[in-house]
TrEMBL record, chain A:
Residues 56-99 form the RING-type domain. The lineage of its organism: Eukaryota, Viridiplantae, Streptophyta, Embryophyta, Tracheophyta. Pathway: Protein modification; protein ubiquitination. It comes from the Eukaryota. Pfam families: zf-ANAPC11. One of its GO terms (molecular function) is zinc ion binding. This is Anaphase-promoting complex subunit 11. It comes from Solanum pinnatisectum. InterPro entries: RING-box_E3_Ubiquitin_Ligase, RING-H2_APC11, Znf_RING, Znf_RING/FYVE/PHD. One of its GO terms (biological process) is anaphase-promoting complex-dependent catabolic process. Keywords: Cell cycle, Cell division, Metal-binding, Mitosis, Nucleus, Ubl conjugation pathway, Zinc, Zinc-finger. Belongs to the RING-box family. One of its GO terms (cellular component) is anaphase-promoting complex. The keyword Cell division applies.
From TrEMBL, chain B:
GO terms for molecular function: ubiquitin protein ligase binding. GO terms for biological process: cell division; metaphase/anaphase transition of mitotic cell cycle; protein K11-linked ubiquitination; ubiquitin-dependent protein catabolic process. This is Anaphase-promoting complex subunit 2. Residues 481-491 have a biased composition (Gly residues). Pfam families: ANAPC2 (PF08672), Cullin_AB (PF26557), TPR_ANAPC2 (PF25773). It comes from Solanum pinnatisectum (tansyleaf nightshade). SMART domains: APC2, CULLIN. The keyword Iron does not apply.
Length: 106, 884
């Protein structure tokens, strides 16, 4: 009887209220797992050919330590890779992929 | 007369020149000599014929017949000795022909009897010998005086006597030995054994008294001091014991007399054999008695002390006694065995033990070492099983081996016991590894160079290579010490981790060692520490690798390459990290640091990133939650609260082992939470986004029912299953599977967890494949009452399914090997059939490009048998074919 009453009351609740209900009743602590990925079109860096989700050859830790950077042409590279490239060009640097003038995306 | 002809050789001219007178004189004298010598020898102690005997002998000598006289007399003596002495002597022992040698016969009366018989027989034969010697002395004097007359006193006064006596001695011993009954040595042995046992019981009683005394004295002192005797104590002990021993001098004298008599009749070496073997017998008994099956204490010292106390004291007394006697009247200096003492050097109370005694001591100690060593080697397996506790036994064994140098015995016997007891299908891999580690540790003590260890370890390594779960067990051993379960049974893990720690300190040296440009100082130190390899070393194996016996290195050696080990470690680490619901990874960081030192930074790079991910996750998690507080969004109040209930581990999936991704439908609210979390993540970390691995992670649930509250720590799948029951109390398994988004069979497996916990009840529905499931609201519903009521259930539910969230090493291997599948099929199309070796070699030869072929023969074999199972290949007579 008691159970049926609970069901009945549950069905009356909208989803958010229901959440509140079982937070009250069935406490839980959810530990989820996810993986992060760079939101880029390509998989690998055009310069070092390493995965974006990995890191450039000079880095040890991916993610914050080895970020991606987008050019005005919308091509993405490891920051360290493109900086190396840009610094090695004596005159104006071009995007290694499309040969347009390299500008960091604002 | 035959004797006459023998003298003919002296010179025929002499014979011709003999006048009739002299012939009559000679024959008269000869007859007189024969009679008198017979009478002399037969007369019991009566020397009345001596004058006539001496005169006749002298007369015969005058005619140049001295050698005839001599020979005749010796022959007479020999005959009489044989007839009377030897026969009677042996007849004493006749009754004991069968009784004596049997060891089990502990008849005290018999023993006593034999003891008396031996004494009596020896005494009698000695007195007979003495008497004959007296007679011989007469002859010697006669010959002597003749010589002196002839040469006017220029002859060596003693030469004749010495010559005759040595000849006589020879006759006596050869007569006796020629008629030696075979049981006599046994009787002697028995006799000495009995005497020595008697002595040792007396000595042991003294020993114990003293020990008690000394214990009383030292009661308040450190306990250690009573175990091994200190040197200073030892001296005083010995002195004291010597005094006690002199009380037993009677016994020793008794034995000494027997020995002396035995020596007297030429049985020097036999007597020595007998008492030596009796002493060794006693020593062996003592060693077995002391050593026994207790490996927790060192026995070597007490054995040595015992040798000092009993057999050496006895020998000292014996040699003392014999020495006194023999030095003044030694009839047979040439007949001594090399082990007999030199009486002139005998211990004479000056405190310097005689050379003979020292020799005996060395001999006894060697024997004790050898006995103990054999005993320990036979039990080495057991000793190593309780290794850290049995260290004293190992230490003993080490000393014994240093002394005896019979390492090869150890290796052979240990290997055979390993084969018989450890390397069998029944032993678990963990046990084998544990024993291996103990073996390494124990043998490292015995032999720091690791030569024997190499020989012993080889069969174990060989065997472990054939086991599938070896790598897993090794990694568990490596990591479990830090796993934070101190009450767990796997204490072996601790020992390996300890090893890691220990290596950390020694690593500095070894890295320098490996460096070619190591500084010269270090090189000099290394050169100075150089020691030649033991002779048993196998020259085909480079000595360079032998230098450092490091346990981890040897463990890695089982697997062959560290990469495999690191890989397995990574998989296990991943599993462990993904199941963590907090971010506490201190223990893992420590282990990783230690492993990094050992395996090199670069090979542990990925593992480091994994740990770093967790640290980052913690930070990001806090950040994301902080943003909520800073910018409250009123329309999402409910979720604000609930975001506290969500934590996330964010991984860099490229660096983690392949993770099985299963689709799960999470409960709606959780789904919302995740989306919200991801959104916030993207805000914080643009332009990065999150991809949820919904089947991974852990959920802490507290289910509250009317009559109970239960806590669970479960996988997300379990959680989402049970949460479905919040909307709806009754589900059929098909519907539930659809709602959760997993196949029915997977669901059924998971549902068993909740059923077993009494949360869900299962009942057969109309369709047999479609069970009806209901939530058990009150315990009474199922009639169960139990301790779970209101209790807390802590369990990571995923584990009892035996399912791992990430791909195992084998799966990885299969994935890697599929690259070669087309190579293999290509090869087989060309060649028709190939053996395993050939495939392996061909792959090695041709696959040098991008995916370099670096697999072992075993790995290839398991891959090929996989292909056979998939019916792509066929395997017949050791050859692989393409399936047609």
């Amino acid at each position: 009887m008691e159970g049926e009453r609970n069901v009945a009351s549950l069905q009356l609740l909208c989803p958010k209220d229901m959440l509140a209900y079982f937070l009250e009743n069935w406490l839980y602590q959810w530990h989820a797992v996810s993986s992060w990925t760079w939101d880029a079109q390509d998989e690998t860096c055009g310069i070092c050919r390493m995965a974006f989700d990995g890191c450039c050859p000079d880095c040890k830790l991916p993610g914050d330590d080895c970020p991606l950077i987008w050019g005005a042409c919308n091509h993405a590279f490891h920051l360290h890779c493109i900086l190396k490239w840009v610094n090695s060009q004596s005159a104006q640097a071009h995007c290694p992929m499309c040969r347009r003038e390299w500008q960091f995306k604002e | 007369m035959t004797c006459d002809t023998s003298t003919a050789g002296c010179g025929l001219e002499k014979l011709e020149s003999l006048s009739d007178d002299s012939i009559t004189e000679i024959s008269e004298n000869w007859n007189g000599f024969c009679c008198s010598s017979e009478a002399l020898l037969k007369g019991s102690g009566d020397l009345s014929f001596s004058d006539e005997f001496v005169m006749r002998a002298k007369n015969l000598c005058k005619h140049g017949l001295s050698s005839l006289v001599e020979q005749h007399f010796l022959r007479c003596i020999e005959e009489i000795f044989e007839r009377n002495g030897a026969k009677r002597f042996w007849s004493y022992f006749e009754p004991y022909r069968n009784a004596a040698p049997s060891e089990t016969n502990k008849d005290l009366i018999l023993e006593e009897e034999i003891q008396q018989v031996i004494c009596k027989a020896l005494e009698e034969i000695s007195s007979q010998k003495q008497f004959q010697e007296k007679c011989l002395l007469l002859l010697a004097r006669a010959l002597q005086s003749y010589e002196e007359d002839k040469l006017q006193g220029q002859a060596n006064p003693d030469s004749t006597r010495v010559y005759l006596f040595s000849k006589y001695q020879l006759i006596v011993s050869s007569v006796l030995l020629a008629s030696l009954p075979h049981h006599f040595p046994g009787i002697l042995h028995w006799y000495f054994k009995g005497r020595l046992e008697e002595l040792s019981t007396i000595a042991a009683a003294n020993f114990e008294d003293e020990e008690e005394l000394s214990m009383d004295d030292k009661m308040d002192l450190d306990e250690k001091s009573k175990l091994p005797y200190k040197c200073g104590d030892m001296d005083s002990d010995i002195n004291h014991k010597y005094a006690v021993f002199s009380e037993n001098n009677k016994l020793v004298k008794n034995i000494g007399m027997v020995v002396r008599n035995l020596r007297n009749i030429g049985f020097t070496s036999m007597a020595e054999d007998a008492y030596a073997s009796a002493i060794f017998f006693l020593l062996k008994d003592k060693v077995h008695d002391l050593a026994g099956d207790d490996y927790r204490s060192s026995v070597l010292e007490s054995i040595k002390a015992w040798i000092q106390a009993v057999p050496l004291q006895f020998l000292q007394a014996l040699l003392d006694y014999l020495g006194d006697f023999t030095s003044c009247n030694d009839p047979s200096p040439g007949l001594k065995s090399p082990l007999a003492s030199h009486p002139s050097l005998c211990y004479s109370g000056t405190g310097i033990p005689s050379e003979g005694l020292v020799r005996w001591q060395l001999r006894l100690e060697y024997y004790a070492y050898e006995t103990l060593q054999d005993l320990r080697i036979a039990k080495l397996f057991e000793i190593i099983v309780d290794y850290p506790d049995s260290a004293p036994a190992i230490e003993d064994l080490k000393q014994c081996l240093e002394y005896t140098g019979q390492h090869s015995k150890l290796v052979d016997s240990f290997i055979s016991s390993l084969r018989y007891r450890l390397l069998t299908a029944g032993a678990s891999t963990n046990d084998i590894l544990h024993q291996y580690v103990s073996t390494i540790k124990a043998l490292r003590t015995i032999d720091p160079a690791g030569v024997f260890l190499e020989a012993v370890g080889e069969p174990i390594r060989e065997y472990l290579r054939g086991r599938k779960d070896t790598i897993k067990c090794i990694v568990t051993m490596l990591t479990d010490g830090t796993g934070g379960n101190p009450n767990g049974p796997g204490s072996s893990g601790d020992s390996l981790l300890e090893e890691l720690n220990r290596d950390e300190e020694s690593q500095e040296n070894t890295t320098v060692d490996d460096d070619i440009n190591s500084d010269e100082k270090q090189a000099w130190i290394n050169a100075q520490n150089w020691e030649p390899d033991p002779v048993e070393a196998d020259p085909s194996k480079g000595s360079r690798y032998r230098r450092k016996v490091d346990i981890l290195g040897m463990i890695v050696g089982i697997i062959g390459s560290k990469d495999q080990l690191v890989n397995e470690y990574r998989v296990m680490l991943a599993e462990k990290l993904l199941n963590k619901s907090d971010y506490d990874i201190d223990a893992e960081i420590r282990t990783l640091e230690l492993l990094k030192i050992h395996f090199g930074e670069s090979s542990m790079q990925k593992c480091e990133i994994m740990l770093n991910d967790l640290i980052d996750s913690k930070r990001t998690n806090t950040n994301i939650k902080a943003t909520i507080k800073h910018q409250p969004q009123p329309e999402q109040r409910d979720l604000d609260v609930s975001l506290d209930n969500l934590n996330a581990t964010i991984i860099s999936s490229n660096f983690w082992p392949p993770i099985q991704d299963e689709a799960v439908n999470l409960p709606e609210p959780v789904e919302q939470l995740l989306n919200d979390y991801a959104k916030r993540y993207t805000e914080v970390k643009t332009p990065r986004k999150l991809i949820w691995k919904k089947n991974l992670g852990s959920v802490k649930l507290e289910l509250q029912f009317e009559d109970r509250a239960m806590q669970f720590n479960v996988t997300p799948l379990h959680a989402s299953i049970i949460m479905q029951f919040q909307d709806q109390k009754k589900w059929t398994s098909k519907n539930l599977a659809a709602a959760v988004g997993v196949p029915v069979d997977v669901l059924n497996r998971r549902i068993n967890f909740w059923i077993s916990k009494g949360v869900l009840a299962e009942s057969m529905g109309a369709d047999s494949a479609d069970h009806a499931l209901t939530l058990v609201e009150t315990m009474n519903d199922t009639g169960k009452s139990g301790p779970i009521d209101g209790g807390c259930e802590e369990l990571l539910a995923g584990e009892d399914d035996g399912e791992r969230s990430d791909a195992s090493v084998e799966d990885q291997l299969r994935k890697e090997m599929t690259v070669y599948e087309k190579f293999i099929t290509g090869m087989l199309t060309n060649f028709g059939s190939m053996a395993l070796d050939r495939i392996h070699n061909t792959l090695k030869m041709f696959c040098i490009a991008d995916p370099t072929y670096d697999k072992s023969l075993q790995q290839l074999q398991s891959f090929l048998s996989g292909l056979v199972a998939e019916e792509k290949l066929e395997f017949r007579d050791g050859m692989y074919f393409l399936k047609k």
